[in-house]
Specification:
rod-shaped; 0% strand; mainly alpha
């Protein structure tokens, strides 16, 4: 990939970083739901 201006390369890198952060956030939410969703529910109403 060829960039003619440093700003173009910076915008491309920033966009890629934001996409990776969004994917990491989504994966962490799914991982958290996987880890916490398998516990049996206790029905203690005392």
């Amino acid at each position: 990939m060829e960039f003619h201006v440093y700003h173009d390369q910076m915008v491309y890198s920033k966009a890629a970083a934001y996409i990776l952060m969004a994917v990491a956030l989504a994966c962490s939410v799914v991982w958290w739901k996987f880890l916490t969703g398998k516990e049996p529910k206790k029905n203690d109403d005392h």
